[in-house]
Amino acid sequence: MVNVTINGTPLAARDEATILEAAAAAGVSIPTLCYLKGINEIGACRVCVVELEGTDRLVTACNNRVKEGMVIRTNSPRVREARRTNVELILSQHDCYCATCARSGNCSLQSMANDLGILDLPYRRELPYSPWNREFPLIRDFSKCIKCMRCVQVCDRIQGMGIWDVANTGSRTTVDVSLNRKIEDSDCALCGQCITHCPVGALRERDDTERAFAALADPQTVTVVQVAPAVRAAWGESLGIGREQATVKRLVSALRKMGFDYIFDTTFSADLTIMEEGSEFLGRLKTRGDNPLPMFTSCCPGWVRFLKSQYPDLVGQLSTAKSPQQMFGAVAKSYYAKLLGIEPERICCVSVMPCIAKKHEAELPTMNSAGCGHDVDIVLTTREIDRMIRAEHIRAGELGEEEFDAPLGEGSGAGVIFGATGGVMEAALRSAYYLTAGKNPDPDAFRRVRGMDGWKEAAFDLNGTPLKVAVVSGLGNTRRLIEAVQNGKARYDFVEVMACPGGCSGGGGQPILEGEEPAGVRNENLYGLDQSSKIRFSHENSAVLRVYRDYLEKPLSHRAHELLHTDHRL
Ligand code: HC1
Ligand code: SF4
């Protein structure tokens, strides 16, 4: 430990601590803008400057370590003046039209400027303009970029993709797609981690809320909405609704108030996915000589995009099952249209997802199994649905709780945990056990694949068949796992991959909480919902069983193949 004094208070700090960490441990908060713990500690924004007694320079707190006897002032007049000038300089190169910014009210720069009482912009400069494809699901606004490097570092160090880089020099310095590529020509997986780690509004999803409002306003259109597992653990965060209050049933009430005709749950089709993917896996296990293992899950479109661009030779090892989002769309526009007695063309299928890549997945030319255009018409992120709730002036926290509609609103606890890393694997193992043993396992028998570790592995015995499985989240971890498998250093039968760290709970379309990585807390919420579910096995979902009885016949049937499977190589 070393002895330091912070703002007049003597205290002991950890030897290796940065000034920022030592101050935080003592309850003193120093503002930061570019800082991301362990990922971006470069002092670029110089907002975290502090004064050291006995020196005439100010130092950045995020990347300077404490030393014995240091006397630190974190908020002296000199520090405040320097911090203010630094923020004014950042604002001089920033498009300050907060009223039209997706991050207004949730922007570190905006709140810092407010806190410092900055009411004028003394150093205005001309802002860079660079064109961007506004149809692409991920949008960069160069005039809002503050060159903090967070997106560059998250994409490079966590996701291992290196899509972003610094471009130009001097006053024209900005961040752009690396290697002079256009974003659509890059290998961007569309995980959206750059968005959730941007402190300002320089990165965002393509806004599809206007299309959703138009569908809701059209009396001829039947709007069918599905809500993804991970959305229920996060939707209240940016509306200021506490976790206890922000239940999925309250979200259902809000969606009903907005005018959606039928409100369904993606956990229904997550259970359907387990029936298909579980059966496919058992088939591949039996014929392992012809089908190389491991089989990889296919429900995360960020991961599927990654595999296609980075390891195209392995695409054949993906499960052919479509993701729950797409299975839902195909069932809604076939089976459910029939139940309603309407032409599928009249259905507008909307999904609420924690994800940016889902916008792209829905637009793939192969995702039109019902034969009337895209099976899923509009994909909204959790942030977008929250904006729509605000635009409708719905006070969601004060609404009562309402049920999903039947039949596509029924889901099991196994379907709910799809939103957490390890959840798809656990759900699949619960049902694979049942399919091989003819009886249910303890629903928590496979809990060893839970938790926030980026790469987990476990061995199980499936009624006499030994099984080695792995679960990874984050694309950097995914690359390491694939290389280990290719080098013969690891061997698995079944691997779950989610592009976003922590799984969909940490998805690129979720509410942004500055300074927090909230996936772990959201996942606990999902596991709690599973624990309290009446049904904890996908194969016990009565609505799923009815779809098989009345329409699909059985898992992997001809019709199931037509509607619920795809060739990922196309
Ligand atoms: Fe996901 Fe999935 S879990 S991919 O993370 O398999 O987005 O939540 O909806 O489709 O069910 C996302 C979440 C989601 C699909 C399911
Ligand atoms: Fe989307 Fe989930 Fe995959 Fe992230 S992990 S890219 S949120 S599907």
Tally the structural domains. 3
Question: Can you summarize the main beta sheet?
Answer: 5 strands, mixed
Could you list the spans in which at least 5 consecutive residues all have pLDDT below 50? none
Give the total of beta strands: 17
User: Which value, in Å, is the CA radius of gyration?
Assistant: 25 Å
* SS strand fraction: 5-15%
What is the distance, rounded to the nearest whole angstrom, between the alpha carbons of the first and last residues?
Answer: 59 Å
SS summary, helix count:
18
Portion in helices? 25-40%
CATH class of the largest domain: Alpha Beta
Summarize model confidence as the mean pLDDT: 96
Strands of the biggest beta sheet: in what spatial order? 2-1-5-3-4
Family: Belongs to the complex I 75 kDa subunit family.
GO cellular component, one term: membrane
EC number: 1.12.1.3
Subcellular location: Membrane
